[in-house]
Amino acid sequence: MAAPLMAAPLFAVVGRPNKGKSSIVATLARDDSVFIDARAGSTRDAREFPMRVDQEILYVLVDTPGIQRARAVLDWLQANSADASSRPAAVRQFVEEHRADPRFHDECELLRPIVNGAGIIYVVDGSVPFSADYEAEMEILRWTGRPSLALINPIDSDDFAAEWTAGLGQYFRTVREFNAQRAELTKQLELLELFGHLDPDWRDSLARAVAVLRDERAGQHRAASLLIADLIVEAITFETSQKVPRGLPQEPVQALLFKRYQHHLAERERQCRRRVEEEFSWTNLNRTEEGLALEESELFNVEDWYLWGLDRRSLLTVAGSVGAMVGGGTGLVIDGATGGLLGGLGTLVSGALGAAGSGIAAMRYANDIGEIRVRGIPTGGKELHYGPARNLNFPFVVLGRALLHHQLLCSRTHADRSPLNLRGELLANLDDGLRRQFGRLFADLRRGRKMTERREQLAALIEQQCLQRDR
């Protein structure tokens, strides 16, 4: 018969009001539903936040109210305890006798999970000086007899971290500096491993939690890479069409197709971003239209491409890396009518033209992302098609935007409630070899060659970049 599953470790996050307790809960539980408010005392009742992966609870964090009357509580405990062996029982007695007393509501709320077996995460602010009046609350926590560690959260700075380390060391075996706003995954896992050393009963559970979270992260990168690969394949291959009866003008339909094409790809990028965010447990990400929305002008106007990171130099770098392939047997077709340019914003040219002159010529074709094609239809009239994209830079731009979005998610904790800012450098870490690999895959996808195989290869290459950006 299989052994019963052990209860998930439970940790109460405690400390004074407005010291970042809720931020630490949000980060370690990866839960952006945790209420965070700059005003002191915003948390009034203890609330549990389980850390789940595939419906398995790995551990539970309890967000608690701030300690308000530590000195009065300690006085009561000292008056009702005969010796050290009776101290944990005295703390439990205090909670039972005062749970209906409004004066000690916050203290009872934070002590209740502790006397019921929770470990303690004590949080202080490293940007304010240590003082003796904190010692009463630390003494109360010591009286509980529960395993504990202290975290110095540098809310505004770490100016007084050394003072806190010395003072906290008198009451806690383990003291660490932990920035809830910036702690990357490795810091979070290190904290779980520390707790595993504090109590033998937690060791196996937390070791498993660390392993599961590492595996889950790898799975998130894989899922994100597949989503991004699908987006790029669609950006390269998508086309839209409209029938025009005989005798009706084609120009309004051409404008309609162009707008339809723009809207579809812009919406697909937004959809991809939402799904990647969900993979990384973001459900309430604060976003702005300027930061996240891919407006038509951003995607199809060369002037706006410069605004979010792909400047003229970056375009020419792509040209220098990939342009040599155009005449080198990779299957890319030169559009002779445009002097070797392959569509709008084209800086990828044949070796004969060279990268140096390509940028100047490209600006004349800035908005020719796709092309209008006209076909006759049996019933009379015409069928107009817009797309697929001819521009070779276009998939690089889509890739760069997706990798930037992914990297920002990986470096962001769930305590960070600022708007996601997607203004940054695109493809800054791609060397010439990687650009060529991507360029070859894009070329084959454009020509419909081995689509399933090329999609998998593209996803694998993107996954490598995702892993490198999460370090």
Describe the structure.
By secondary structure, the chain is α/β, with parallel strands linked by helices. It folds into two domains: 10-198, Rossmann fold; 217-468, no CATH class. Helices cover 47% and strands 11% of the residues. The chain has helices at residues 21-29, 70-79, 87-98, 105-115, 135-143, 161-168, 185-198, 200-237, 251-279, 289-292, 296-300, 302-307, 312-322, 358-362, 393-410, 432-446, 451-468; strands at residues 10-15, 47-53, 56-63, 119-125, 148-153, 175-177, 240-244, 372-376, 382-386. The strands form two sheets. Strands 2-3-1-4-5-6 form a six-stranded mixed beta sheet, sandwiched between helices. A three-stranded antiparallel beta sheet has the order 7-9-8. Helix 16 (432-446) runs antiparallel to helix 17. The two termini are 42 Å apart.
Fold topology:
Elements: E1 10-15, H1 21-29, E2 47-53, E3 56-63, H2 70-79, H3 87-98, H4 105-115, E4 119-125, H5 135-143, E5 148-153, H6 161-168, E6 175-177, H7 185-198, H8 200-237, E7 240-244, H9 251-279, H10 289-292, H11 296-300, H12 302-307, H13 312-322, H14 358-362, E8 372-376, E9 382-386, H15 393-410, H16 432-446, H17 451-468
